[in-house]
Design goal:
It is a single chain. By secondary structure, the protein is of the alpha/beta class. It has a domain of about 280 residues. About 55% of the residues lie in helices and about 15% in strands. It is built from 13 helices and eight strands. An eight-stranded mixed sheet has the order 3-2-1-4-7-6-8-5, sandwiched between helices. β1, α2 and β2 form a beta-alpha-beta unit. α10 packs across α12. The longest helix is centred in the N-terminal third of the chain and has 38 residues. The chain is globular and about 75 Å long. It is found in: Cell membrane. It comes from Geoalkalibacter subterraneus. It is an enzyme of class 2 (transferase). Belongs to the glycosyltransferase 2 family. One of its GO terms (molecular function) is acetylglucosaminyltransferase activity.
Length: about 425
């Protein structure tokens, strides 16, 4: 019996080490293959493709207390090179100057329409309302503090025109808050983790989520799946799973750039990551029963990846608790664990992490120059972001399980980094 328990303990220790190592190399191989097949040799993002026709597009901006950023956001949308678009901004019961700013902008830009909610209804309801009032089949949705590259709409639309089963296209968010260490590290994270995972997941056909900050949608696909869920804290994960379960394809367009603000404080980053984790669990729990059907087998790699990541987080927590107990109490031999201080496995994981960042920043260099200078900040990523992601994943699950069903997910004002705060003060 003791031998069996020793084997179980050794298995968990090996799992903690080999799982992140395996996923890192899986993502690197997938991203390099994606780049080699679909990005290498393509024109620059500034040289957008010539489309056979240009159907109408609604550029959608749901807003809650975005008064400090809306002028530059709308100006960027108005500079789109796509020839046939309108802008729909939804003011979701903001308590700041968002409403008056949007009304003033609507008087300046004929292509801008504004919808006002009297109360905070949540981002999902704002997106739904924009889809209802839009006369067009296609939507490109961005956040109220984001700056869409002038060529992005054309790149996104190229997928809808060439793919009748394309339900959504996720763009390439780029960080513009780089005032602190957390901000600089996120520049690498969005390339090495988010961009790399999207490329790798496209290889096996399904993505975990579109980027809520910049994505295009086919309205008939949204209508079929019932639009964005009103009770999910991450409406982007929810709509991604709905579309793919109903056999709509989601593509990644790295040339569709969008410059975004991100948290630059530990508190802001923690709240954001807990929300992301909770949202992922909510969608998983909601859809898990239907995942056993053969018709949705292409979602199985995404579900398996998420479940194993969850198991790894809680295994890590269990090992850490046992290690702490072992520091103060005598434990049975089969529960005795090696030191949590990184030894050669930690060195291997650290070097793999740096290799992953090197590969991803090399791939992304075609979309943003000067990324190499952020590589040296990446050495802090395992310490800062792995721990935050680990604990946010652990906290997110009980929040998703015990959340009251059907409760509307509404807005909170996010941390937009020091650069974002300064932008607000100056406007």
């Amino acid at each position: 019996m003791l031998e069996v328990l020793d084997t179980v303990r050794d298995f968990f220790i090996a799992f903690l080490f080999f799982y992140p190592l395996f996923m890192a190399y899986l993502w690197m191989i997938g991203a390099v293959y994606y780049y080699w097949r679909r990005e290498r040799g393509r024109p620059s993002y500034r040289n957008e493709p010539k489309l056979p026709h240009y159907p109408g597009v609604s550029l959608v901006v749901p807003c809650f207390n975005e008064g400090a950023h809306l002028v530059e956001t709308i100006e960027a949308l108005a500079r789109q090179t796509y020839p046939n678009f309108e802008i729909i901004a939804v003011n979701d019961g903001s308590s700041d100057e968002t409403g008056t700013t949007l009304d003033a902008l609507a008087a300046e830009y004929e292509c801008l329409r504004v919808v006002h909610f009297t109360g905070n209804q949540g981002k999902a309801m704002g997106l739904r309302m924009a889809a209802m009032v839009s006369p067009h089949e296609f939507l490109v949705c961005i956040d109220g503090d984001a700056l869409l590259d002038p060529h992005a709409t054309t790149w996104i639309m190229s997928h809808f025109i060439n793919g009748p089963r394309v339900g959504a296209v996720t763009g390439n968010p780029r960080i513009r808050t780089r005032s602190t260490l957390l901000g600089r590290v996120q520049v690498g994270e969005f390339s090495a983790i988010i961009g790399m995972i999207k490329r790798a997941q496209r290889i096996y056909g399904r993505v975990f989520t579109v980027s809520g900050v910049v994505s295009g949608f086919r309205k008939s696909a949204l209508h079929q799946v019932g639009y964005w869920g009103l009770d999910k804290v991450t409406e982007d994960i929810d709509i991604s799973w709905k579309l793919q379960i109903n056999h709509w394809d989601i593509r990644f367009e790295p040339n569709a750039l969008c410059w975004i603000l991100m948290p630059e404080t530990l508190r802001g980053l923690w709240k954001q990551r807990v929300r992301w984790a909770q949202g992922g669990y909510e969608v998983l729990l909601h859809n898990l029963p239907r995942m056993f059907r053969w018709k949705v087998r292409r979602m199985w790699p995404v579900v398996l990846e998420f479940l194993v990541a969850m198991a790894w987080s809680y295994s890590m927590l269990a090992v850490a608790v046992l290690w702490l107990l072992g520091c103060f109490l005598p434990l049975p031999e089969y529960l005795a664990l090696p030191s949590m201080i990184p030894d050669w496995p930690g060195v291997v994981l650290g070097l793999t992490c740096l290799l992953q960042f090197a590969v991803s920043l090399t791939i992304d260099a075609r979309y943003e120059g000067g990324l190499g200078r952020y590589y040296y900040w990446m050495i802090w990523y395992p310490l800062a972001f792995w721990l935050i992601s680990l604990f946010s994943s652990i906290v997110g699950l009980p929040r998703a399980i015990f959340k009251r069903r059907g409760r509307r997910a509404t807005w909170v004002s996010p941390d937009r980094g020091i650069a974002g705060e300064n932008a607000g003060e100056g406007s």
